[in-house]
Sequence to fold (205 residues):
Amino acid sequence: MIQLKLIILICLLSKLNAISPNAYFANNATLVAPNNYLLYRNYTTTSITFKAVVKTTGWFGFGLSPDGGMANSDLVVAYLNENRSVNFTGRYVASSPSLPIINKVQYWKMLHYSQNNGYTTAIFSRNLTVCNAAHTIAIVPGTLFVIFAWGSSFTSNSLFKDIKYHSPANRSSTSLPLTSTINQKITLNMNQIQTVDFRVNVKIS
Fold:
């Protein structure tokens, strides 16, 4: 009975961490036109949530960079394992060119991952600032450099070769105001709002 309750609790927690791919995002950017790499984002005072829609059924990467390059970047890499389970890891690149190294502390969180019609959709989040974790970049007001890449490799052996040597056409960087003013908290003035009460008489026989 205790084991059954534990399984139910784990299932409930996984559902709480999930998010619909159709969830509303206030901010969006086309990183690679026309629809090769789209990025959406919402943020609060403590965290930010990204939605990446990438034209691939292989792997994709997204991250933050101090100067637009790979060196000292703070990123995620995601793909499907050969058994179709999701492999999502927070990583960093100490120097370029080199393979992304998996962080000992995983502070990026995967909320959704799916593939449909040749596209990968992933939703993930992290805190704006991360304490007690190495190789992190704080997300602060103003523009920040983001880096992104994708590839078609599927097997784990060819995947990392593809990540390290992906073609220039499948990688780039840009600067974005990640915590822009678009999704500011809205405060309603209740003195300027009219309310109406509707009463319905229901006869229960």
